[in-house]
Amino acid sequence: MAAALILAAGEGTRMKSSLPKVAHRILGEPMVSLVVTAARQAGCDPIVVVTGHHAEIVEELLPGETCVRQQRQLGTGHAVKCAEAAFAGFDGSLVVLSGDTPLMRPATIAGLVEARESSGAAASLLTARMEDPFGYGRILRDEAEELVGIVEQKDLAEGQDSIDEVNTGTYCFDAAPLFAHLHRLSDHNAQGEYYLTDIIGVLRAEGLDVVVVETDHPEETLGVNTRVHLAVASRGLQHRINEAHMLAGVTMTDPGLVWVAPTVTLGRDVVLEPMTFLYGDTSVGDGTVVGPSSRVFDSRVGEGAVIDSSVLRDVRVGPGATVGPMGFLRPGTVLEPRAKTGAFVEVKNSTVGEGSKVPHLSYIGDASIGRDVNIGAGTITCNYDGVDKHRTVIGDGAFVGSDTMLVAPVTIGAGAVTGASSAITKDVPPGALGIERSDMRVVEGWVARKRGAAAEGER
Ligand code: UD1
Ligand code: CA
């Protein structure tokens, strides 16, 4: 099995950012995570990531991964050298990938390994033909079209800038000759760096074979160096992911306006309306409609649910439940099957039981709501006393009148009713009415008397 080394220590100066380049996100995922996932899906094991510039930020994005540090960023060749100890005793295929090439497909990585192993070459090298090769290292060949080496953009001699065959920064090496020759790289070049690309020339000069594999998916080799590239890569990944979902039975009214992270799973007959974002560890069940204008993060949404113009973060929505328009479901929210949270409703760390409804303009925080409960418009759980948070418990079949303030901790028993506009500060037993309201007065003839008095005063 091939091992993989992912280079992610660079600063990424051209991003003009305080964040290291590989930590920038595409569809909500850090670029470096996308590359690690591609290597893993290609079957690479072990996988080692070289970190350096803001290593702590990058490593935090990679829980459970093996990282080695490159203290000073002296070039891609030097980065590989820093990982040598991590591969002590390893002989076999070592894939080297750039942390800034987020669209690389697992099949391409596996193909590169296969090309090297089946030919017995010292390395295989992934290249692409580019209409605009500017910025990439170029592939140098002799008169017999044999590979000679790679020249970086900044080191190109006259006439070489028209070479459209570029190095994608993706390689598979036989580990032994790679590490045996790495010390021969020098930093005598335009950038004063130890270029990994020079190893290709070194291996060739030793008379060792290097197989060139040209990708038939040039878009996957895009190296992100600027925010413009970041946007192009986002668009490319969005297109690839959306196409796969549509072919698997998902409807997208306008796939250019739907953003689905690679970590998301979607059932059949899901409908995604425009301006919808599904990010993180999210799954959506069969026949659910999400959008327009919705953002769902790290959530489980059941079958046949409807999420309209709402934001959901770290929640569970049961089958047949409906949310929105303009709903805000925050972490710890659970909507049981067929529950409803309607327009301008915010819910946090609460369960809304099966078939229960919170239809309009409410805040539900730290509450447990049973089955078939109706929560009237404008109801608020007063869960915070300025120091601590308290729970509200509402039993099955209860009816909470409009504009009820539930001052927690408080319990409304099963089947109980609260009168509209009440501030409920004491528990209401099952089947009881809780009401807190001053008597209303009706003053007959008041308007006429008032106007009469006013007219009297004017005279
Ligand atoms: C590199 C290649 C170039 C290729 C291009 C493809 C070299 C010298 N050049 O150029 O031939 O066409 O990728 O995208 O390799 N990094 C480190 N430590 C360092 C320097 C870089 O870990 O000291 C990492 C960076 O974080 C990045 C990757 O290596 O993920 C590539 O570095 P970058 O500076 O982007 O190289 P390019 O100029 O794009
Ligand atoms: Ca790059």
Report on the architecture of this protein.
This protein is of the alpha/beta class. It folds into 2 domains: 3-221, Spore Coat Polysaccharide Biosynthesis Protein SpsA, Chain A; 247-434, UDP N-Acetylglucosamine Acyltransferase, domain 1. It contains 8 helices and 41 strands. The strands form 8 sheets. A 9-stranded parallel sheet has the order 14-17-20-23-26-29-32-35-38, with no helix packed on it. Strands 5-4-1-6-10-7-11 form a 7-stranded mixed sheet, sandwiched between helices. Strands 12-15-18-21-24-27-30 form a 7-stranded parallel sheet, with helices on one face. Strand 4, helix 2 and strand 5 form a beta-alpha-beta unit. The mean pLDDT is 97. It binds uridine-diphosphate-N-acetylglucosamine and calcium ion (CA). The site of calcium ion (CA) has 4 residues, from loops.
| Tally of DSSP β-strands | 41
What is the mean pLDDT? 97
CATH topology of the largest domain: Spore Coat Polysaccharide Biosynthesis Protein SpsA, Chain A
Q: For the report, how would you describe the main beta sheet?
A: 9 strands, parallel
CATH superfamily of the largest domain: Spore Coat Polysaccharide Biosynthesis Protein SpsA, Chain A
If classified by CATH, what would the architecture of the largest domain be?
Alpha-Beta Complex
Count the DSSP helices.
Answer: 8
The residue fraction in helices comes out at 10-25%
What fraction of residues sit in β-strands? 25-35%
Number of domains as seen in the coordinates? 2
**How are the strands of the biggest sheet laid out side by side?**
14-17-20-23-26-29-32-35-38
